Fold:
Amino acid sequence: MPARFARLVKIEHTVFALPFAYVGAFLAVGRTPSAHDLLWITLAMVGARSLAMALNRLIDAGIDARNPRTAGREIPSGQLSMPQVVLFCAGSLALFLLAVWQLAPKTQDLWPIPVAGFVLYPYLKRFTWLCHFWLGAVDGLAPVGAWVATTNHLPWQAWMLGAAVALWVAGFDCFYALFDVDVDRAQGLHSIATRFGVRGAFAGARLSHLATIACLVAAGLGLSVGALYWVGVAAVALLLLYEHSLVRPGDLRRLDAAFFTMNGVISVVFAAFVILDVTT
Structure:
C-alpha cells in the first residue's frame, strides 16, 4: 500500500521542487540554516507536494481514465479508492500544517495560498491554456516559502527566485503537454499545445526558460553571492540549452529524457552550487 501512494504522488519528482526550497533557505540567511528549519522545511515540502499531487490525481480521475497514457494510474485502475486518496490528502495537509507551525510566524499566515493553488490547478486545464503558468506559480512558492520560513521576511529577491522557478516549471510543462495533445483536444481540455500547436508549445518553453535565466541573474545581482552562484546560473543555462536540443517539432522521441531526467539534474545542480557558494 505505501508503494501505491508513493507512485500516486510520483515521489521521485520531489527532486524538482525540494532543491529550490533549500536554495531559498540558504540564500535567505546567507549561511547554513539551522537543522530545525531545514527539517521542518523538508517536511512542509513533502506534505505540500504530496497534497498537491494527490488532489490533482483525485480531481482528474475521470480525465485520466479516458486517456490511454494515464488510465493505469492508481485511481482509474482501482489500485487506490477515492476515499483512500481523500484520507491521504488529509494526512498530507496535516503534515504540512504541523511543519508550518514550527517555522517563522508569517508562514502561519500565508499557508492558505499554496493550498488554494493546489486545489485550483487541476480545474484550469478545463478552461485555459494558461494552466502551465499557474502550475509554475504554485511550484515557484517553494523558494519563497522557505525564505519566509527562515527569516519571516519576503524581500524582492525571494520573489525573483520564485519567478525563476515558476517560469522554469511552466516551460517544461509546455513540453509535458505534448504527451497528450491529441487526447486533450478530443476531451476539450486546454493547453498551450492544443491552443497554439506543437510549435507554440516549443516557443512557450523557450521563452519561459530564457526568462528563468533572467530572473536568476536579477536575484543574484540583488544578493551578496559569490562566483559559485554564477557558475550555477551558467550551468542551468547550459543544461536548459541541452534539454531543448533533445526534442524538436516532429521529433519527440527523447521527450521523456528532456522532461524527467534533465529537470531533475537542473534543480540538483543549481542547489549544489548555491549551497557551496553560501557555505564556503
